[in-house]
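Q&A FORM
Asked by: J.P.
Topic: structure of Transposase

PROVIDED:
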Amino acid sequence: MQDEVRGAVKVTARRWTRIYGRSCGTSMEKRPKGAFVQALDTEVKAIKQHKETRREYMTLAMELKRQRQFGREEGREEGREEGRQEERLKMILAMLRKGFSVESIAECAQTSVEYIMELGKKNHLL
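REPLIED BY: S.T.
REPLY: Here is the structure written out as tokens.
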């Protein structure tokens, strides 16, 4: 019976180590391995404690977040504009196929007669 308990404890300890990266008997913090990793860990801890550096980092992080949001909004607007242009082009071509006058199409699409003529020739409709 004691052997079964010991075996279960060992299996549980191995699982704990695999899941949490440390044995259940150590502190909650992972221990860095290797000189480079230890030096890096020490530097990170020092930076985390330095208030000015933290403020600069947070300011940078907020600025990057703001720029990403701005980029997304700008991208969405460009996508909408491209969609409008595409639909306008489809409408112009459909009207040319149905035989509407170039002047009527230009008026409806709020564009120049020259542009309609160019599209019509390009798509072999005029």
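FOLLOW-UP: The mean pLDDT is 81.
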